[in-house]
Each structure stands twice: as C-alpha cells, then as structure tokens.
Amino acid sequence: MANAPTGVTALEQCFEQCEDSAMALPRLSTLALVVALAVGCERSEPKPKSPPPEPPPAPLASAMPAVDAGPADAAGDAPPPELAFDPAALDVLAADARATDSAALVVIHDGKVVRDEWYSRRKDPIQTMSITKSVLSLTVGCLVDEKKLAVDDPVGRFYPEWHKGEHQGITVRHLLTHSSGIDEGKGTGVIYRSKSFVGLTLSSPQVNPPGTHFEYSNRGANLLAGVIAKAAGEPTEKVVARCLLRPLGIESYWWSKDKTGQVHGLAGLHLLPRDLAKIGELVLGEGEVDGQRVVSADWIRRSTAELAAVQPKNRRLGMMWWLLPEWSKRTLDEELFEEWRAGGVGEAFIEKVRPLSGKSYDSTVALVAALRERFGDPTLKEWNDTLYEQKLPDVHWSFGPIVGVYSEGTLGQFVVVVPRYRLVAVRMRRMPKDAKDKAVVEKNFPDFPARVLDLMRPVR
Q1: pTM above the 0.90 mark?
Q2: If you write DSSP's letter for every residue of 44-57 in order, what string do you get?
Q3: How do residues 233-262 score in pLDDT, each as one tens digit?
C-alpha cells in the first residue's frame, strides 16, 4: 500500500467531506453541490489545527414520485439490436473528459484497453470518494463466500450495543442498501469531526424502522467498514487488500482514517484510474479475472443486478452499486406543480418553471441548462432554497431496462460496467483549484454513465 501523501490541500479535504452532497443525489444530483463545495471540513491526513464549520444539510433522500417503466425496469426478452463499438464516439467522449477537467479516462472493450489517458500532471492515486462504498460491498461478498458474514446478520452480532433496543433489527443488508433507518444527521461535518466514525454511527438515533425507507447513509457505510473488520478479525484495510486488491494486482493505494485508526467507509480509498478499472473488470467477469476466482458470481449478481427492496426515486439501487438503465427521463408537469403548491410553493416560482411543463430531459446537464435559463442564475439558489430545503420533489423520473451497473463519487468519479457490451469505463477527477467554479455541474460529468452507453452504435 502506498503511503498517504503529505500536504493534502484544504480543498481536497473539503471535497471528501462533501461526499454526501453529491451522492445523496435526491433529485438532480449536483444542483446543491455548486453552493456546498466551498464549506470547510476535516480529514485525518493531515489533521487540521481547529475544527472546521459544519456544512449545510445535504439532501439525503428523494421525495420524488417515480414514474417507472414497469417491466422495462428489468431487461426485456427481446434481443438487443446488433451493435458495434464506435471509435469516433470514444474520441468525442475523451474530448469531453478533457473539457470537464478530468484527471484520467480508461475504457476497456471486450477485454482490450482502448483508451487509457491521463489529463493531469500528477499520476498518483486519486480519492475515489463514494466508490469506496462499492469496494466495501465487494469485500462483504468475499466474507460471505468465506462464511464469516451473512447479509441478514444483525449488526448487533458484531456490536453488542445494537443487540437490543431500537437498533436491534438492523442487518448488514440494511447497511448495504441505505435502509437502516438511522438518523444521518446534518451533513458530514459531524462525521469528520468525530473521533470515531463507527462510534458516531452506533450512537445515532433510529428515525425509521429498518428496511422501510431509503436514506443515503454515509454513517451506515462507516459502520459497514467496522463490521467487515469485526467479521474478519483483522483491520478493514487488510481485509480489502486480501480479498480484492492483492488478487487484482493493485499495489498503489492508500486510505483515509479516523482518529482511532479505522478506515473511512463513506469515502477515502485512493486508487489509480487503471486499478479502479480492474475492479470494474472484476464485476464484468462476475467475480473472476484472468481465470482467478476473487468473489463468487452469486455475490456479483446479488449486489449489482438485483434491485434492493427499498429504492430511491431517482436511481436504481443494488447493494452499494447503482444499476444503470438504458435511459432515464426527468419531467416537469402540472401534477408536479400541484405537489409544490401543497408544500407551500408560491405561484411566482411555479410561473417561472411553467414554460418547461411537459418537457422531458434525457440528461441532468440538459435539465440544469434549461433551469439556469429560466432562473438566470448558474447556482440555481432559488430552486434549491424552494424545493431542496423544503424536501419537495423537483422532477418526475422514469427508467428504461437495466443494462449495467456503476459506482459514483463526488467530483464525478465513475466506474461503469456494461456486461451486454463488454464495456468497462472509468473517469476520475482531481480536486479543482476553485471550488466555486460556476460550471461545476458540467465538470462533474454527471451523464458519464449514459455517455458510455453511446460508445455502442447500431450496425448499419
């Protein structure tokens, strides 16, 4: 394992702390992040001299009613059209990656590396942000295979303080699917100032019965990292190295840790882009790489292809992996406006948005552009203050068939896996110099997973 570099900037620390702001993604995924990125924070490498201010509350769960595509949420029986990899589309993707301040792009098709480019001068491991959670999910799979852990084990098996009382019904599955029901608190500032990330989670009150509500849970991910250590009888980072990193030949990496020495679960694993792609290849190979079985195929299918029992409204969730639909649409309509009125939104606000009524947007970037034009404000402050702060829905969603899986972290860190097309793609970004960049939505490349699907074009 590589040593943690010294001299990490305050801005780098800030973006790790802002992990929940982007990954909670209750609606547009990055609208509120524009305002939140400059908030101070704390990380264990290096330790700041004084506690930073707590960031504003981040949206943690969507209240939006989803307009599902019904049977289309699962891949249909009809054979897909004959498709071929399009090198020209790859060139466009690479150009857009450079234009959005990406640090690196890796694309692997049919087992061949077709693009492996660095765009930043630094070529050391990059903070994967919430992709760390997906790595923990794979590690849980390893322990399940070793019969050291079961997804329906109560967390109280590993932490006696949860053996009784309001937390006794919480299982490992609930941690994996953001449905534990614990209070997530107001942002990650409290987490990063705490001595023990696990201890903070254990002391968090219960606000919903386990398994009944989706709420993006950084605290739950931190506890999952602790569960892994308890189940294996060794530190989390050693379990991850033994189960995943060493078998995949990954040597250059490092972890962020809390003051007790426990690695972070919400974020904190730093990897090279090509090594992150190896994790994608592991998923593509259903747990096998170069003839070596690393994780069981059963676990890969359960965690990356099966819908969790409780779903957010704006995505499709497995076990700490997001399922990738062939398409998704974001729509504003009169029914939505009625929900706003019921929530106390004034007519002046609704009239600003009304020209967009009935329109559907295939991408977050397209929707953000339309909203910016209506509000005349790149930060969309009025939009966020009116809807996000009141926890009101802002669009209706619909989804197409599931064709792949991806993991995403703050700044637009992505690993995308599309088994149907034998595709793995990674996009990573380093900390920008200016956290108040007005183009932050675009520079997070929120539509990267959909753009990866565009690499395949119908055969003429």
Answers
A1: no
A2: SSSPPSSPPPPPPP
A3: 999 999 999 999 999 999 999 999 999 999
